[in-house]
Each structure stands twice: as C-alpha cells, then as structure tokens.
Amino acid sequence: MKNPFAHPFAKFVLKKIFFYSVVAFVALNFIFLIPRLMPGNPIDQMIPSGTTDLGRLRLKAELEKYFGLDRPLYEQYFNFWANLLRGDLGYAVMRGYNFRPVADAVMAKLPYTLVLVIPVLFISYFLGNWIGARAAYMKGKRSEAVYFTSVFASQMPFYWFAMVLLFLLAVNFRVFPTGGTFSPRFIPSMNLASLADASRHYALPFLTLLIITTGGWATGMRSMTLYELDSGYILYARQLGFRKKKLASYAERNAILPQFTGLNINLNNLIGMTMIIEMVFAWDGLGLLALDAIRSRDYFMMLGTFLVTMIVVILGNFLVDLAYAFLDPRIRTGQGG
Amino acid sequence: MLTIILFGIIGSMLTRDPLAYSSHFAEPPNSEYLLGTGNFGEDVLAQLCAGTRNSLMIGAIAGSIAMLIALIVGGIGPYKGGLVDEISNAFTNVVMVFPMLPLLILLAAMLEQRSMFLVAALIGLTSWPWAARCIRSQVLTLKERGFIDVARMSGMKDRKIVVTEIMPNMLAYIIIVFVVSLSIAVLTEAGLSMIGLGPDPGSTVTLGSMLYWVMNSTHAALPWNLWWCFIPPGLILTIFLVAVFIMHTGMDQVFNPRLRKV
C-alpha cells in the first residue's frame, strides 16, 4: 500500500502544521517572558498607592506567593504551561469584570472582532482583485484615476480615515452612530431590532477597514495582471487570435495566485488594524477590551487578549495556507513545481 | 517630484515649534493661525510642524534599528548559505507570522514611561522581518554574480567581500528599504500615539499625539466639529506614505527589470 504521507499534499500539510506549532510555541513563550522581562512589575500595580512602606513589602511578598512568583523560574514556567493547557488565563481585576475568568471574558468578545475581520478579509479580497483586474485594462485618464484612488486608499493611515468617516458621517450628517456596538440603554437580544441596531453601528468600522484593504488588493492586482498580460504566453495567444475574454481569464487566473499568498500578511495587518479601529469606534471587540485593560493596567486581561489574538492569527494563517495548497494545482496534484 | 514633497515636509519642520496654549480657543483657520487653533488654543500649524519632525525622527530611529537587524538576519544568512541561512530564514518566517501591532500594543502598554527613543526602539524591534526578506532576496541574486566569485577566488576574506563588494552594490536598494521601513514606522507610531501608547502626549507632539488629543475627551475636537485639528496630520501622513509608495514602486522597477515594461 502506498504511504499516505508520501503524497505531496499531505507532506505540505504536515510541514505547515509543524511550522505553525513552532510559531505558536514561540508566541506562547512570549506571553511568559514579556511580563518578566519588561520594566515595571504587575505586582506593584496591584498595591494601592496609599500603602505604607512596611505594608507594601508585606503585601508584595503575599501577592508574589499567591501568584507563585516566589518559586524558581523553571517551576513558574511549568506552572505557566499547565495553566495554559487548562485554559486558565487568570482573573480580570479591572473594573466591571468582577474577577471573571479572563478566558471567559476574552472569548465573549472574540465574535465581535471576528465578525469584523472575516467579512472584511474576504470581501476586500474579491472586490479589490476585481477592481485591480479591471483597472489593468483601462487606458488613459480613467486608469490613472483608478490607480491613484486605490494607492491613496491603501496608503491612508487607517485610524485617520476612521476619524474622517466618523466626523463626516456620524458627527456632521448623523447617518451613523458615533460608536459602540448597540445604542445606549438598548438591551441586545436575538431579534431583528437588535440586529438592525448592531448593523448601524457596524457600518462605519466595516467600511473603514473594507476601503483600506480593498485599496491594497486593487493596487497589487493591477500590477500583477499587467505583468501577466505582458508575458509570453498571452502574447502568443493573442497572435493566435484568442478572444479578449479568454485572454483575460488566463491572465487573471495566474495573477490571482500570488495575490492569494498576500492573504496571510493581510490577515496579520487586518487584526492589528481592527484592534485600533475598534478603539476608535468603541466597537465591543478584543481591541476595545485590550484598551480598557491597558487603561486599568490589568495584566491578566492584556496578556489574555494578546494570547487569543495570537492564536486567531496563527490559525487563520494556517487555514489560508491550506486553502492555497488546495487552489494551486502544483501542490494539489503533486506534479510540477 | 517625490523628493520635493519629502523636502517640503522636512522644510516645514524648521519653521515653528511651540506647545504653548494661547487665548484663542478653537478658532478656525485665519490669517494669524494659518491652520486654526485647538480647544485650548494650541496653534495647529506649529503642532503640525513639530509633530512631523518628531514623527519622522521616531521613524528614522525605528527604521535604522529595523534595518540593522534586517541586515544582520537577512544579509549574513544567504551569504553564508547552509545551516545559517536555514536558521535565519526560518526565524524571519516565524516572526513574519506574528501579528506585530498587537504585540507592539502589549509591549508599549507594559512600559510605564515611554520616551520617544523607547517607542522608536520598540517599533524597530517589531518591524524588521519585511526588510530582512527584501535584503535576503537581493543578497541572493547578488551572490551569484561573477564579480563575487572573482573576489572570492582572489582570496578575499568574507567580511571584506560583504563590505566592499556586496554593500556598495546594494546601497541604493538598502536606502529604499530603509525609507519604506521609516514610513511604516511613522505610520505605526502615529497609530500607537493615537490610542495613547506613544511617547507621553503631554510633552511630545507627534502626528499621532495630535490625533490622540482629538479623540481624547478633554480636548475632544471631534464632537466640536474642529476639523482643522485632525485633517492636517492625517493628510501629511497620507501624502508622505503615498510618496514613499510611489518611490518604492519606481525603485522596484529599477531593481526588477521584468517589471520595467509595466
């Protein structure tokens, strides 16, 4: 019988799994290292500022014992992994969370972030590539206009664009609410009214992210298509008298493949962008949670949000790679390449 | 044309600098205050100049740090080849997957006091993988050229080959990668500052801190319709980034002849 792992596709998947495990391992070690390496001690932050010196010392010793920081480093490291694998990320000390487990709180916010990231990722990919491919055929003024709009859109600082939209559409024309996920004093439930309310709040952050990322795809796709249109096989096909549509489909199919690898980096950027955009629009996702945690110096929460973001990004990258392997015939069939 | 834009920014930095408040609160642009004043009477134009300068400075520091790491990781690896290359490349790839902005937010949040230099260093430390990859590919192509072989055969030391043969040939490329890193750093810095994680917004004016004050509730230019407070810093950033982008595509065509016809 043939060894199933000998198939190039399986090999590819295994390689990717190995790679992302390494990345995840490094990332998780970061979570362990960062608070221990950075100046400023989380314990000091927990002690109320009015405490006397003696009280401070004793409280510090007590807290260090409580969090296991008095143990040797290797033991701390094992405890860290044990807690992590149990899904125990500590408790939220920030206001309004009442010592809720961090893992809980973060997971509750995660869908709000994903609901922004995932549609933006895919819609901008298709929209941007479509615009880019069209832009490649345009001539003269129109081509330049499209090109500069997309360059402009992709190079704009996204947070600034968010503010401009906020200013124009929410403050001046009052088309959309200025922030939040639901209107104040609105009790969300599973019905159409809350869906409508949420989508009105959703529109602005979504639009901001969409326009910025679409611009990036469009510029990339335009140059890729131009490049493919210029290559030998297209010139040959044109000499043979192929129809324009046929030519376009050949060129675009080849142009879109390299674009797909950009999806990885785009995902990474998008997660970071979404966090900041959430802060601007007070959209109730991970970014806003991270900002609240930072403002109230809640280290557990900070590390927790970071950890979950990291895992989401790594998983997302893995899925993108798998999809790529599936789309690229060279990897799928194991021939050529 | 692009250099003119860049020089325009640099030139404008040299004009004024104050952080002072005046008694002219929230005035729209007029002849005395060309870009108006903020809610506490800050001169927006002066802030803009100082902010641009500081932002570019942070960008330059961060860009240099990123370049240094990138040169070491991306330059030595492919030249030596073999295991060193494998390790450095794997390292770059691993770091590349990291979501850098959240990491940066986390690191910045952990610091109690953030000086300009510290923020710049953080940005530099987290933004080098892209530059490393660019340099790696460039070294890989250069390495195969004949004159490197000649140098090696004539018994030159590795270090001397790198310094005297490879570097001069890459200088233009290194500069463009540096400029792009710089622009990314400026963008990142403004983003960090905007959420209040940049250098102390009370004492250091950057383009990001201007946006921070706009968002911040005490100054709150946004609900007050003070558009002249936040449009200019973003516009400067945009112009700067677009210029760098066009420069970058231009240089790409020079270094990658296959793209030239496009």
Describe the structure.
- The complex is a heterodimer of chains A (337) and B (262).
- Chain A has 13 helices and no strands.
- Chain A has helices at 8-37, 42-46, 53-66, 73-85, 102-137, 140-155, 158-172, 192-229, 232-240, 244-281, 286-295, 299-327, 329-333.
- The two termini of chain A are 26 Å apart.
- Chain B is elongated and about 70 Å long.
- Chain B has helices at 2-13, 44-80, 82-97, 100-110, 116-126, 128-143, 146-153, 158-194, 207-215, 227-255.
- Chain B is mainly α and 262 residues long.
- Chain B contains ten helices and no strands.
- Residues 13-24 of chain B have low confidence and may be disordered.
- Chains A and B meet through helix 1, helix 6, helix 7, helix 8 and helix 10 of A and helix 3, helix 4, helix 8, helix 9 and helix 10 of B.
The gist of it:
With 337 residues, chain A is mainly α. Chain A has helices spanning 8-37, 42-46, 53-66, 73-85, 102-137, 140-155, 158-172, 192-229, 232-240, 244-281, 286-295, 299-327, 329-333.
